[in-house]
Specification:
mainly alpha, 0% strand, coiled coil
């Protein structure tokens, strides 16, 4: 990788995200999660490829896997910084795909990272709603 294509440092990233809207913070977290998932899938495919490779090929694949693992770690650190920024703004961070335990106890759908559609205290009857929610 050339010096000009290196990602910004974690310190610079932490400073930069303070200027982003809450919506942009969530979008960045989703992008990072997607990137991580793709890297993990790639590593799994590379591990499978090692079964038919020569010693030299295996060594190369191990280097690529190790580099991908380093990138995953970096992206996880960025997600942690996004979480801190969201929480510093007084919002609750909920990992994608997980429900908040307090909301589960009350039978309510949580507002994931502050991006809910219903107003505060407003409940939606999904049985009569034909809309598509992402």
């Amino acid at each position: 990788m050339s010096a000009s294509s290196q990602p910004i440092s974690l310190t610079a990233f932490a400073e930069a995200i303070t200027e982003l809207s809450l919506e942009s913070l969530h979008a960045e977290a989703a992008k990072l999660h997607n990137d991580i998932n793709k890297l993990l899938e790639s590593n799994a495919a590379l591990e499978a490829e090692k079964a038919v490779e020569t010693e030299e090929g295996i060594k190369f694949l191990d280097e690529v896997i190790a580099e991908n693992e380093g990138v995953v770690k970096s992206k996880e650190e960025r997600i942690a910084l996004l979480k801190v920024e969201v929480e510093n703004r007084g919002q609750v961070w909920i990992e994608p795909g997980k429900k908040d335990e307090k909301d589960q106890d009350k039978g309510q759908t949580p507002i994931v990272n502050g991006s809910g559609h219903a107003g505060a205290g407003e409940q939606r009857d999904e049985s009569t709603d034909d809309g598509v929610y992402l």
